[in-house]
Amino acid sequence: PQRRQLLRTARRVALFREAGAMFEALHFQYFLGGLVSLITITNPPSKMPLFISLTQGMSEERRRQQANWAGIYAAAIMLVSLVCGNVLLAFFGISYGAMRIAGGLVVAAIGGNSPNKAPIVRRDREDYAFFPIAMPGIAGPGTIAVVIGFSTEIAELPGYIDMAIAFAWTALAILCATSLSWFIMRYSDVI
To answer: pTM (2 decimals)?
Structure first.
C-alpha cells in the first residue's frame, strides 16, 4: 500500500513537471503574465465612470461607437508598443534594463496618484474615443511601459520561433484585456 502510494505520487509529480515543461515550451506564461498585468494596470472597471460622464447625452448608437473605437484604439496603441517598443529603445540607445527600471518608476508614480482623479476634458466635442478614453484612459503611459517591458523580455528569447510564439501570446493577452475594457464600457448602462 505504501509503495503504491509512492508510485502514484511519483507519477503525479512527473505529470506536473511535463505540464510545466509544456507551458514553458509554449511560452504560455506570456499570456498569463500579460493578461494579469494588463488587467491590473488598465483597471477596466475604473473606465466606467469616465465613459458614462463623457458619453452622457449621446444616443445609444453613438455610445456604442465610442466604446468600439476606444477598444480598437487602445488595442492598436498596445500592439504598436509591443511590436515597435524594441525599435524605439534601440533608436534612442536605451538598454532593456534601463527601460524596465524607468517603466517601474512610471507605474509606481501613476499608482501614487489618486485613483479618483479623472483627466480634465472639455465637454464640447463629439468624439472622446481616442482621447481621453483610449489614451490615457486605457492605454496610458504605465500600460505602454508595461507592454514595452514585455517586448524587451521577448527580445531576449533565444530563437525567432520562441519570439513569435511569445509575441502571439502577449498580443492575445492585449486583445483580451482591451476586450474586457470594451465590454465594460459598452454595457456600462446595464452594469
So the answer is: 0.80
